Amino acid sequence: MKGFSTRAIHAGQEPDPTTGAVIVPIHASSTFAQDGVGGLRSGYEYSRSANPTRTALQECLAALEGGAHGFAFGSGMGASDVLLRVLVKPGDHIVIPHDAYGGTFRLVDKVLTQWGVTYSTVDLADIDALRAALRPQTRVIWCETPTNPLLGIADIAALAEVKGAARLVVDNTFASPYLQQPLALGADVVLHSTTKYVGGHSDVVGGALVLDDDGLAEQIRFTQNSVGSVPGPFDAWLTLRGAKTLAVRMERHSDNAEQVAQALAAHPAVSTVLYPGLPDHPGHAIAARQMRRFGGMVSFTVKAGKEAALKVCAGTELFTLAESLGGVESLIEHPGEMTHASVAGSALEVPDSLVRLSVGIEDAADLVEDLTHALDAVR
Ligand SMILES: Cc1ncc(COP(=O)(O)O)c(C=O)c1O
Q1: How many structural domains compose the chain?
Q2: Do 114 and 252 fall within a single domain?
Q3: What is the full DSSP assignment across 239-297?
């Protein structure tokens, strides 16, 4: 198999056979001419079912995760929705992480439960707790690692060993396929919000699923086409363009986040730094084993509490106050009031002194100076 960056730049992306264009064209066509009824010229018929720009992205994503089948969606939640429609039926049970992404929790808690699906929240770092939560009706173990926003680490290979008949789904959004390859560790399906690191430039919303199982892939293809949860060709093209530079960006994100995490750990206004690259992080050893590096996401709690945390979020200049993550520019946010407001009052509620950073690829010294300045104001 070719190296990661070679696959990112070439998989699914042969020069265009008609014009020789080196870059996959944006096939902005909803429909495709047929040579006689049922005589498809190139296998394409209608862009909800398939579109050549989307196919290129899907082949690239499958190659990056080392899976047989890739599917691109209009958003990460669109990917989660289609996958769960396929995997669970009324009466089934799902295990989700006790600190799952808020949108995933909302989908399970507010939408799936209406259809008779039950769920348990489990700390997936605790394999005994997972074993205790499994039931004969458990169809899915939904894992995020690292988690959003607490940067918890789960041991994917250990989860695969205890999953029994349930499918292990790994949301690999925080790590990206460059840092972590869940299928090789025993996961059944990998999910991405490609809005984040794969796209990488905060200019497109998208999602992806990658898997090996042919039967499951056929069900996903059927369901995606049935519900219409597809990206347009321009969005697919932007995501594919982002994917080409994923490896170099992730190296730089990881370099910068390591420096930011160390600076935060040394600052008197900070009580805890959550970054799997720090040796005292409880998941450090597992992360070091299953990830290439530790990624660009860092969370921390502010000693003086919620008001001080909000002040820090409003006090940076380079870190823009905004939701989302994984772009080249650094972002800061308050999960309790922003990305994770939907889990308030639930078992997944996050500390109100928590601040989450998406560390970008600017110059690390400037990022550290910006944060230090904002933190000095609340010490
Ligand atoms: C870990 C994780 N999974 C899934 C999603 C949902 O993706 P999207 O916003 O592209 O629908 C997000 C979005 O923030 C996320 O952070």
Answers
A1: 2
A2: no
A3: HHHHHHTHHHHHHHHHHHHHHHHHHHHT-TTEEEEE-TTSTTSTTHHHHHHH-SS--SE
Mutate to test the pocket of ligand 1, among 75, 195, 239 (most ligand atoms within 8 A of CB): 195
**Local confidence pLDDT in tens for the 379 residues of the chain:** 899 999 999 999 999 999 999 999 999 999 999 998 888 788 899 999 999 999 999 999 999 999 999 999 999 999 999 999 999 999 999 999 998 888 999 999 999 999 999 999 999 999 999 999 999 999 999 999 999 999 999 999 999 999 999 999 999 999 999 999 999 999 999 999 999 999 999 999 999 999 999 999 999 999 999 999 999 999 999 999 999 999 999 999 999 999 999 999 999 999 999 999 999 999 999 999 999 999 999 999 999 999 999 999 999 999 999 999 999 999 999 999 998 887 888 878 899 999 999 999 999 999 999 999 999 999 9
147 Cβ inside 6 Å of ligand 1 = no
Determine the Cα–Cα distance for residues 360 and 254; give it in Å rounded to an integer.
Answer: 9
Q: Are residues 190 and 57 in the same domain?
A: yes
Domain residues for the domain of 104 are 4-244
* 95 touches 101 (CB < 8 A): no
